[in-house]
Every structure is written in structure tokens, then in C-alpha cells.
Design brief:
heterodimer; A: OB fold (Dihydrolipoamide Acetyltransferase, E2P); B: alpha/beta; nine-stranded mixed beta sheet; two-stranded antiparallel sheet; 38% helix
Chain lengths: 144, 388
């Protein structure tokens, strides 16, 4: 049925301008090599991704805390088939790690052979500026 | 709350349907549903449409579909609950009748996913976790989200890649017996193992296809069932629902979908049944690991024993609880907004004992069936219990 006649629609390209006013310190922090989380001053809960309002006690009085970067892999996968906008990337490994502070982080894991990646692997969370100037955070193995 | 019955069902052929547009596809389900119920469009005061959209051209699909099917003028709403949008539409129509607002309503589920290329579809679905924190920098895909669950489950419970493959083999076996299924051929464990890796450990044959399809149901109050003279009404005994966090990083663990546990316990309690009373079930097997999680989270077996359940054939016809004997999302296809309605259509046929071929009919003891429909990676969950 793939040979059926179709009419091609007008193209539509959308780019969203996502406000980061309330999380600016996080994005600026990455440029300085720091990964920040947010902590509620009222109930003490820590949030990653950072949250400018506390979904637990509904307070909006939050403070930034720098994460130690120490974590342990809870699960991971190797993404072979990538989305359209990731076609320029080579296949990548995504991991979720539980950090020393109790929050979990999802990020790419680099600098370790596939056969050495296991649940329980100790990792370091690091801020990074890509050669294209994008800021992000990644995991690397802790003992290398 | 008033009792609500399913009195009409309709289902299009699922697959790559480049022969029809969105409205024409929906018509293939709407017309037989009306005919099955013995009603006309003028009799339907309320319509809910489950669809996610973005991969087809219409921004207001409920309006376009209603016009094309001659349903304009009825109360109308579009329901979005990701891959559980169809169940959300059934729930919305159910609620309209149960609350006493209307006596008759229609729920339509429809999705047209193949009007964009595959990698764009992978992109659009991948963005639907948490765009800013899990897609923007990390390019998560849905196979990858479920692969994270597979790795955690394999690590904790010793589930194997072969267990996962057996889910696909079973669902393809039944898909081959369902003329409406996207794929109608049997496969082997070897076929699964030799298919290319999508997001390790999930391979192509661990993943449901990107499909086009539509399904529709007509629901009625008890009074209306009598008035229409429906001889085999299938009653919606209960609908349980729950949700989970957008960010996967905020979940408690990766060996269970908490939304499934919560939704199913609500549904069991409302219906006054236990998992052992279920004669046949459709569960959300968007990826093979998802069916194993579903067995455990729905209470069909103990936590960690999902792999054993598939290995021992307990979810085949003749087993303890036949599951996805329409081919499941894996082989029947997964046009995401249509899936929840499609599950209800299939279970209605099972409860009416009118499945063709008869070899695909589950034996009935209690005349109780369960539909489990997950949206996203446990972002939404609906569990619907039907009884004849």
C-alpha cells in the first residue's frame, strides 16, 4: 500500500523559545563546570531536574545546591536508532544514576567500554560545553 | 452512577494505511459501530475522540472526523493521554452516560502515524517523555525508555532476552490469526534475535510497529440497552486510572510501572474482582518488556515472575489468563490513539464469544475481561474491566 498517491502538505518548521529565567543559574553553572539542583527552603526536598516551585509543599522559596557528582548507575541502554534531530550523533549510551544526594539524573554515559557498563557502576556527573557551544551534563566512570 | 454497556463496535484494518486519510480511516470504524448498535448518527448526543496527532495534517481531528462521519452537532471532545488516549476517550464517553448527562455516546480512537517518515515519528514520540530534561540533550526514544526498564528487570529478576522474544513470538502467532492486524505472520525466537538492535537489549521484533488505524464503540445506559433491544450487552464494570511522572528519573524504580499497579487496584476494587477472575486480557505490549511488567503489575503473577509466566505458556489460549490474543500492540499494531478503543472492541468480541476464527476465542468461565492501556512510559494508565 506504500505506492498510494499522496498530496504533500506545506512544510511547517517550529522552534520553541523555552524560558529559562527561573533556572538560569543551572544553565550558567554548567558553563562553570557545576551541576546544580534545587532545594526547598521550607520542606528541605531536593529536586533534579531543578524546580523553581516545590510540588511537595507548594512553597516557591528555593535555594540552589551544587551536586557532588557522585552517583551509581541504576539502569542504562545503548540507543542505536536515533531520532531525526540526532542523526549527526553516533549511537549513544543513556544511563540513570542515583546521586549521593538522593536525586536521580538521566544523562549520556561516555568514556567506558560497553562491556564494562553494569548496573551498580560508580559514575561521576560532569558539566560539559560541547564543541558546538551547547551546554550539557554527562556521566563518566568514577574510577578512571 | 448508572451502569454503562458497550452496544456497538467497529474496527478498521490496522497497518500502513496510505490508501486513506485520517477521516476516511475513522469512518471505517464509526460506520460498523453504529450499524452494530442499530443506531444512526442523529441518536448520538456525545462523541469523544482519542488521538494524539502531530503526525497528520489536521490540528482539530475530532472536528474533522465528526464532520466526515456525519456526527457534527453532537457534544464533542478530543482526549489526549498519549498511547492511552483511546481509553481516555472510552472513559469520557462512559462518564457522560454514568453521570446521567446522556443515554448514548460514542468513543472513537484514531491515529494516522505514517504520514511522516519513520525517524520523524521516532523524534515526535521521543520528545513525549520530558522534552527539556530527557530529549533536548539526550535524544531519548520510546524503545530506549522501555530498554531502561528491561535492563533493570533483567538485572533484578534474571529475566532474559529470550523471555522478551517469547512475548513477540506469542503475539505474532495470534496476530497471524487476526485479519485486522498490522502483521499477520508468525515469527521465531531466532527471528527476534537476528533483527537489528533498536535500543539495547530491545531489537526490532521487541518493538511494536508505527501503525495507522481506528476503532469505535457505542456506549449506552441500561435504559437505552433495553430500548434498543440489545441481546448481548457488555457492561463496563469499572475503569481505574492513574499517572506517573514526566521525567523517568523521578520514578521509584524501573522494574514496575506504578501507574499500572494503582490503576488496576482501583479497577479491581470497583468491579469487586481479583486478577484470578479475568478470563481474557489485553495488555499494553508496546515493547516486549512492557507485557512482562504488565503481568506482574496487574497481579497476574508475583513480582519478578513475568518471565516465567511467558515461558510456561500461561498467557496463551488454554493457559491461566490468555493475554493479547488479538496480536497485541506488537502484531496487531499500535496506532496510539486507537489502541485503547481497539482493546475494548476486541474484548467485547471475546465476551460475546463471536471471535473469528473460533480458534482465537478465549474460553469463558466468569465472562470477565480486562484492558490495560498505558500512555507513554507509565505517564498515564487506564485499566478497564468488562463483563457480559
Amino acid at each position: 500500500m506504500s505506492e498510494m498517491p499522496t498530496l504533500q502538505s506545506r512544510p511547517l518548521n517550529i522552534t520553541y523559545n523555552i524560558p529559562i529565567n527561573k533556572t538560569l543559574k543551572f544553565w550558567e553553572g554548567l558553563k562553570e563546570g557545576k551541576v546544580y539542583a534545587m532545594k526547598c527552603k521550607k520542606c528541605g526536598k531536593i529536586y533534579f531536574p531543578p524546580s523553581s516551585d516545590c510540588p511537595s509543599c507548594l512553597a516557591s522559596d528555593m535555594e540552589w545546591i551544587e551536586l557532588s557528582g557522585e552517583g551509581e548507575i541504576e539502569t542504562f541502554t545503548h540507543v542505536i536508532v536515533r531520532p531525526a534531530s540526532f542523526q549527526d550523533e553516533r549511537p549513544y549510551t543513556v544511563a540513570i544514576a542515583r546521586m549521593k544526594e538522593g536525586v536521580r539524573v538521566l544523562a549520556w554515559l561516555v568514556g567506558v567500554k560497553k562491556k564494562d557498563i553494569k548496573v551498580g557502576l560508580k559514575v561521576k556527573l560532569e558539566a560539559e560545553v560541547t564543541p558546538e557551544g551547547k551546554v550539557r551534563y554527562i556521566f563518566t566512570p568514577a574510577n578512571i | 452512577m448508572r451502569r454503562v454497556a458497550i452496544v456497538g463496535i467497529g474496527h478498521s484494518k490496522f497497518g500502513v494505511r496510505t490508501d486513506v486519510n485520517m477521516c476516511e480511516l475513522a469512518f471505517e470504524a464509526v460506520k460498523p459501530a453504529l450499524e452494530d448498535a442499530g443506531v444512526t448518527q442523529a441518536d448520538i448526543p456525545f462523541v469523544s475522540v482519542g488521538t494524539v496527532g502531530v503526525w497528520y495534517e489536521e490540528p482539530l481531528p475530532a472536528v474533522a472526523i465528526a464532520e466526515y462521519c456525519g456526527l457534527s452537532g453532537a457534544g464533542l471532545v478530543r482526549c489526549e493521554a498519549a498511547c492511552a488516549s483511546g481509553s481516555a476517550a472510552v472513559n469520557t464517553a462512559y462518564t457522560a452516560i454514568a453521570s446521567g448527562q446522556v443515554d448514548l455516546a460514542m468513543a472513537i480512537g484514531a491515529e494516522k502515524m505514517t504520514e511522516v517518515d519513520t525517524l520523524t515519528a521516532v523524534e515526535l514520540i521521543g520528545r513525549a517523555g520530558s522534552y527539556l530534561w530527557e530529549f533536548e540533550n539526550f535524544g531519548m526514544t520510546f524503545p530506549a525508555y522501555y530498554a531502561l526498564h528491561a535492563v533493570a528487570h533483567m538485572h533484578k529478576y534474571g529475566t532474559t532476552e529470550e523471555d522478551l522474544a517469547l512475548v513477540s513470538v506469542k503475539n505474532h502467532k495470534y496476530g497471524a490469526m487476526n485479519p485486522l492486524a498490522h502483521f499477520q505472520r508468525e515469527i521465531t525466537v531466532e527471528d527476534v534475535f537476528s533483527s537489528h538492535v533498536i535500543a539495547w537489549p530491545l531489537k526490532l521484533y521487541d518493538c511494536c510497529p508505527i501503525s495507522d488505524g481506528a476503532a469505535a464503540v457505542v456506549l449506552a445506559s441500561e435504559e437505552k440497552v433495553k430500548e434498543l433491544g440489545i441481546d448481548t450487552p457488555v457492561w463496563i464494570e469499572a475503569i481505574g486510572y492513574s499517572s506517573g511522572t514526566a521525567n523517568l528519573s523521578k520514578r521509584k524504580d524501573y522494574v514496575s510501572l506504578e501507574a499500572t499497579v494503582k490503576a488496576s487496584r482501583i479497577a479491581y476494587k470497583k468491579a469487586g474482582i481479583s486478577p484470578g477472575d479475568v478470563d481474557v486480557a489485553t495488555v499494553h505490549d508496546c515493547f516486549t518488556i512492557a507485557e512482562i511488567l504488565a503481568y506482574e503489575d496487574l497481579g497476574f503473577c508475583k513480582k519478578g515472575e513475568g518471565g516465567k509466566m511467558i515461558r510456561e505458556g500461561e498467557t496463551e489460549i488454554g493457559g491461566r489468563i490468555p493475554v493479547n490474543i488479538d496480536g497485541g500492540l506488537k502484531a496487531k499494531g499500535h496506532p496510539i490513539g486507537a489502541t485503547g478503543v481497539s482493546m475494548v472492541v476486541e474484548l467485547t468480541k471475546q465476551l460475546r464469544e463471536e471471535v473469528k476464527p473460533a480458534s482465537r476465542q478465549a474460553p469463558m468461565k466468569n465472562y470477565v475481561a480486562l484492558a490495560h492501556n498505558v500512555g507513554g512510559t507509565g505517564h498515564y494508565c487506564y485499566v478497564t474491566i468488562l463483563r457480559r
